[in-house]
């Protein structure tokens, strides 16, 4: 029997929804309604109010105080035009911080540079100063078009926010600066103006991939004059998405070379480990890094918060903690009542909707005007909905916002006093990015990480040194992934015929992949070049977000109104027939999922339950790229094929989490070829660990769950990016085996990272299980919210003994080796 753990796809459907009513620690009286604008609460005072009472105070496991830091100035480089310096002064900035001046200096010398400093450290100005200077120089050119610049953001919201900032800064500079957003929301009639007249185009990698590069002749004058390419929030380009963006940028460089330009790349990142290496891998050009943050910082009080155990019991009778969703909804309610401007970051779309809905209901009991000052913000909203929420946030009309990471990335939400993180966001880089949304004008700020009931969150709130004493992670991406590379070679050939000289630009795997594309008759060689052979657009071969197909449209059955979209990979688990779907605080039931037309038909309803998908998974080994002996055990890395099928769903009562029933589903299986790390143990090792055959399945299954939960501490992944299977006797290894695999075709680099750090990763896994206060296993250690087998069997104590025996013969972390060429 195989025990499986589903990767990306079930994210929205599996968010815990049980909500236990609590008594608010902050009295809800009219005399505590929001204070007048300009009054900013002190973070320690706010936290004291939140933790009034022994019950609330006991939920704080650690409080970290980051003291204020003074700033350090430097002069602008002489090449920055005086008009730009004056415009910056007019905006209230007399002198730049040292890292801003240093970044601008590299840019002006034609050196690609990444500035990786803290949130609100002024990274935008660091690249805008040289960009605006270049655009002004170009506006005086005889041909009138002059220099151009391209700005890439991972989200539409960030690009729109940057346009506002550029227009404000460039207003004194006159008509020499012409910024314009070019994204999926840009009307058709405006797109021609952007191509012909804008000299600072703000877009996203998706539009560059699908619209700009395929139509490069229409952009010829813009590309010919392209001086700078700004890549904002570049730390988000990781995994499969980052690998796709890396190849899109190589295509951009190739097309630019065709028009005679060689743009300089200016990258901005949250604090990251070795940002120059990651930026070089992303762009394919050498990049200089600026990492010393010279900006001032206000006081930050950062609290780790663990929800209490409830009297409820979950699967297999395990104790259940109050959900992070319910806890964050209470905290957001209390903060809004105090007049503390707050954003609650949530990992799932459903969670964002639910927190806003609960907070609105509870605020209505205090003052009828308060519910309208709280909203949800997530991907999948229609453009007009997003713009309205962003405007309300900027204007101060909203006091509280429950948001997914769609709002994390650089959107200027100045004026916030507090941030709630509903669960660890997956990486330390994202943690600091989200926490930095508050206090952006130099005031003090409060950040609270509310732990979910899972192994990693539980480990972190009891091991604060893992958050506050460790550097942020390295960004993991793999542009040589053949599943990523192949469609981009086709797209490149459709843009301009491919030649032998082009292949080095796309990496060492390009010649082999090119041969495969010839064999599949997607490319054809004519003379010295390869050409795209099909009538359809080559750019449509892939979704660079790694969604795995056309998004599923969520449509209201009675009216035909489009509510939003769901990624294709998530559709089987989140909008299957009978699923509960939340949108803008309203609840819908899915009546039918049409996979052929990529449409889910829903109707508004008010069911007293949530839904959770169940699945089955099998795995086979295709190739072992690397293998390391751990005594008699073996640690391996290579290629695998995973077959997954969503087979049923559970209905859980909203308040208690009680399982009301299970319904079967008839959905087709999905096959995934990807990369995995796996380890085997021998019968002798099992005997030494005192694990008999009856306990073996539960020990392997528990170790698998916990190791998946802990991997995001060592790789820049989310637990929903990875999956796992544990088998007491696997047909390919003929031994008890645990697999952890990337949930994306061809792999995303996460399993490879797990292979490199296996000793530290599995040691932390064993420690997390052993430290949990439960007796037989619970969601805080070995149970998984997305287990396809109903978390059965699980044996916590046997898993601890198994991992201890496995690790006894593991090499020291510094002795771990990287796989050879076959694994790279």
From TrEMBL:
<dbReference type="Pfam" id="PF00270">
    <property type="entry name" value="DEAD"/>
</dbReference>
<feature type="domain" description="Helicase C-terminal">
    <location>
        <begin position="331"/>
        <end position="483"/>
    </location>
</feature>
<dbReference type="InterPro" id="IPR022307">
    <property type="entry name" value="Helicase_put_actinobac"/>
</dbReference>
<feature type="domain" description="Helicase ATP-binding">
    <location>
        <begin position="104"/>
        <end position="290"/>
    </location>
</feature>
<dbReference type="InterPro" id="IPR018973">
    <property type="entry name" value="MZB"/>
</dbReference>
<keyword id="KW-0378">Hydrolase</keyword>
<keyword id="KW-0547">Nucleotide-binding</keyword>
<dbReference type="Pfam" id="PF22982">
    <property type="entry name" value="WHD_HRQ1"/>
</dbReference>
<keyword id="KW-0067">ATP-binding</keyword>
<keyword id="KW-0347">Helicase</keyword>
<dbReference type="Pfam" id="PF00271">
    <property type="entry name" value="Helicase_C"/>
</dbReference>
<dbReference type="InterPro" id="IPR027417">
    <property type="entry name" value="P-loop_NTPase"/>
</dbReference>
<dbReference type="InterPro" id="IPR055227">
    <property type="entry name" value="HRQ1_WHD"/>
</dbReference>
<dbReference type="InterPro" id="IPR011545">
    <property type="entry name" value="DEAD/DEAH_box_helicase_dom"/>
</dbReference>
<dbReference type="Pfam" id="PF09369">
    <property type="entry name" value="MZB"/>
</dbReference>
<dbReference type="InterPro" id="IPR001650">
    <property type="entry name" value="Helicase_C-like"/>
</dbReference>
<protein>
    <submittedName>
        <fullName>DEAD/DEAH box helicase</fullName>
    </submittedName>
</protein>
<dbReference type="InterPro" id="IPR014001">
    <property type="entry name" value="Helicase_ATP-bd"/>
</dbReference>
<dbReference type="GO" id="GO:0004386">
    <property type="term" value="F:helicase activity"/>
</dbReference>
């Amino acid at each position: 029997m195989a025990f499986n753990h589903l990767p990306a796809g079930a994210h929205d459907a599996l968010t815990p929804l049980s909500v236990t009513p609590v008594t608010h620690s902050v009295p809800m009286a009219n005399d505590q309604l929001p204070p007048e604008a300009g009054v900013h609460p002190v973070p320690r005072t706010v936290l004291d109010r939140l933790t009034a009472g022994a019950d609330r105070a006991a939920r704080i496991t650690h409080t970290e105080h980051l003291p204020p830091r003074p700033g350090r100035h430097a002069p602008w480089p002489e090449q920055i035009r005086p008009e730009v310096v004056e415009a910056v002064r007019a905006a209230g900035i007399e002198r730049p911080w040292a890292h801003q001046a240093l970044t601008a200096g590299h840019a002006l010398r034609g050196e690609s540079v990444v500035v990786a400093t803290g949130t609100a450290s002024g990274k935008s100005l660091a690249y805008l100063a040289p960009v605006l200077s270049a655009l002004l120089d170009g506006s005086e050119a005889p041909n009138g078009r002059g220099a151009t610049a391209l700005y890439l953001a991972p989200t539409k919201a960030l690009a729109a926010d940057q346009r506002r900032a550029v227009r404000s800064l460039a207003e004194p500079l006159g008509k020499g600066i012409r910024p314009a957003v070019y994204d999926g929301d840009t009307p058709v009639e405006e797109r021609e103006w952007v191509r012909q007249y804008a000299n600072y185009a703000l877009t996203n990698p998706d539009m560059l991939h699908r619209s700009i590069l395929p139509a490069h002749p229409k952009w010829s004058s813009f590309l010919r004059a392209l001086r700078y390419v700004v890549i904002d929030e570049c730390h988000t380009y990781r995994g499969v998405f980052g690998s796709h963006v890396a190849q899109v940028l190589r295509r951009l460089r190739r097309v630019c070379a065709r028009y005679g330009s060689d743009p300089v790349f200016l990258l901005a990142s949250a604090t990251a480990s070795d940002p120059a290496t990651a930026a070089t891998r992303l762009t394919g050009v050498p990049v200089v890094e600026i990492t010393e943050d010279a900006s001032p910082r206000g006081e930050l009080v950062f609290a780790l918060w663990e929800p209490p155990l409830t009297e409820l019991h979950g699967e297999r009778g395990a104790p259940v903690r109050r959900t992070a969703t319910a806890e964050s909804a209470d905290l957001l309610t209390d903060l809004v009542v105090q007049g503390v401007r707050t954003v609650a970051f949530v990992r799932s779309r459903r969670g964002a909707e639910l927190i806003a809905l609960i907070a609105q209901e509870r605020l209505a009991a205090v003052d009828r005007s308060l519910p309208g000052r709280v909203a949800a913000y997530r991907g999948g909203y229609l453009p007009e909905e997003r713009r309205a929420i962003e405007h309300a946030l900027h204007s101060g009309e909203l006091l509280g916002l429950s948001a997914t990471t769609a709002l994390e990335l650089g959107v200027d939400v100045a004026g916030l006093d507090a941030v709630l993180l509903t669960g660890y966001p997956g990486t330390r880089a994202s943690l600091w990015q989200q926490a930095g949304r508050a206090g952006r004008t130099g005031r003090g700020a409060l950040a609270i990480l509310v732990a979910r009931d899972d192994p990693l969150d539980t480990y972190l709130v009891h091991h604060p040194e893992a958050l506050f004493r460790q550097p942020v992670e390295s960004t993991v991406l793999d542009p040589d992934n053949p599943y990523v590379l192949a469609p981009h070679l086709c797209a490149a050939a459709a843009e301009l015929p491919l030649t032998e000289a082009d292949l080095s630009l796309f990496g060492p795997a390009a010649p082999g992949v090119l041969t495969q594309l010839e064999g599949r008759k997607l490319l054809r060689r004519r003379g010295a070049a390869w050409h795209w052979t099909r009538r359809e657009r080559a750019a449509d071969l892939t979704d660079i977000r790694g969604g795995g197909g056309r998004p599923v449209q969520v449509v209201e059955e009675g009216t035909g109104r489009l509510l939003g979209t769901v990624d294709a990979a998530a559709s089987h688990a989140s909008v299957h027939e009978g699923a509960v779907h939340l949108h803008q605080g309203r609840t819908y039931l899915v009546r039918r999922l049409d996979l052929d037309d990529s449409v889910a038909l829903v109707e508004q309803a008010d069911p007293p339950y949530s839904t959770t998908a169940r699945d089955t998974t099998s795995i086979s080994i295709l190739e072992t790229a690397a293998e390391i002996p751990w005594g008699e055990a073996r640690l391996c890395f290579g290629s695998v094929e995973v077959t997954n099928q969503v087979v049923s769903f559970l209905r859980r009562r909203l308040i208690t989490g009680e399982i009301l029933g299970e319904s079967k589903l008839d959905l087709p299986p999905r096959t995934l070829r990807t990369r995995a790390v796996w380890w085997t143990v021998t019968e002798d090792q099992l005997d030494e660990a005192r694990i008999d055959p009856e306990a073996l399945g539960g020990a392997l299954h528990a170790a698998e769950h916990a190791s998946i939960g802990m991997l995001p501490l060592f790789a820049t992944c989310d637990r929903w990016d990875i999956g796992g299977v544990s088998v007491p006797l696997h047909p390919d290894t003929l031994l008890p085996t645990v697999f952890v695999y990337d949930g994306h075709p061809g792999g995303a680099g996460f399993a490879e990272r797990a292979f490199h750090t296996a000793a530290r990763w599995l040691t932390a896994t064993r420690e997390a299980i052993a430290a949990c206060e439960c007796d037989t296993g619970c969601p805080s250690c070995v149970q998984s919210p997305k287990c396809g087998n109903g978390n059965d069997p699980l044996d916590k104590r046997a898993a601890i003994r198994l991992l201890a025996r496995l690790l006894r013969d593991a090499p020291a972390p510094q002795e771990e080796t990287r796989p050879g060429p076959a694994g790279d």
